[in-house]
Automatic annotation (TrEMBL):
Gene3D superfamilies associated with the record: HUPs
Keyword Ligase: yes
Protein name per its UniProtKB record: NH(3)-dependent NAD(+) synthetase
Catalyses which reaction(s): deamido-NAD(+) + NH4(+) + ATP = AMP + diphosphate + NAD(+) + H(+)
Binding positions (Mg(2+)): D35, E135
Enzyme class: ligase
GO cellular component: cytoplasm
MF-aspect GO terms: ATP binding; glutaminase activity; metal ion binding; NAD+ synthase (glutamine-hydrolyzing) activity; NAD+ synthase activity
InterPro entries linked to this entry: NAD/GMP_synthase, NAD_synthase, NH(3)-dep_NAD(+)_synth, Rossmann-like_a/b/a_fold
Binding site for ATP: G29, I30, S31, G32, G33, K34, D35, S36, T130, S181
The protein's annotated pathway: Cofactor biosynthesis; NAD(+) biosynthesis; NAD(+) from deamido-NAD(+) (ammonia route): step 1/1
Job description of the protein: Catalyzes the ATP-dependent amidation of deamido-NAD to form NAD. Uses ammonia as a nitrogen source.
Amino acid sequence: MSRDLELENRVEFLKNYTEKAKANGLILGISGGKDSAVVAALAKRAFPDNCMGLIMPCHSMDEDVSHGKKLCEELEMDYNIIDLSSTYDSMLNTLEEPLDELAKSNIKPRLRMTTLYAVAQQKNYLVLGTGNRAEIVLGYFTKYGDGGSDVNPISDLKVQEVFELAKALNIPQEIINKPPSAGLWEGQTDEQELGIRYKEVDDFLDGKEVSSKVRKTIIQKYKASKHKRQTFAEYRDLGPLDI
């Protein structure tokens, strides 16, 4: 399939899904990274006048905010900057139990999700997810945080495929070249935290040869994160209503 047709099909998917949901448009969080940049560009093509980006720093690096602003301005997409740092601090101060670093870090994407849905409801927009296939397979997202969305147009794409789409969509080069990072803390990168490279995950998903250590790590993370890929566990699944 040609790159242009690939883009067109994903744009049409967003249009059709949004219209069936009787929503007016699309909104997403802009992180300053490749994944959200590609999704933003697709959203802009699908709904040129009814899409919005929220840049939501939460003790974030200035570079991420700068890249988010540059992306939205180049796409001519409406955007707003909502600093969640004081909200985050207030929540930590409210909790009596001290939290470890990972628990504290996961509050940030959950605050962003809450903010996105508040604005989305006001505008009757759908919330876009921005996770790629590797992140979803590894469970490398925050449940009810960046994993909370209505529709995701890149969930089937491996990291290299997102990279190729980013180039085709003329995403700013400094965003394309950035090491993937969830922005959970300063200097954090996905590959450092995961202990494997995305190239290795892509190869595994393509059925290519990977080391036994990489294979074991991917399978372990996939199994351990099964609960994150379903809404909730049910005692008994009664299935859909026959109506």
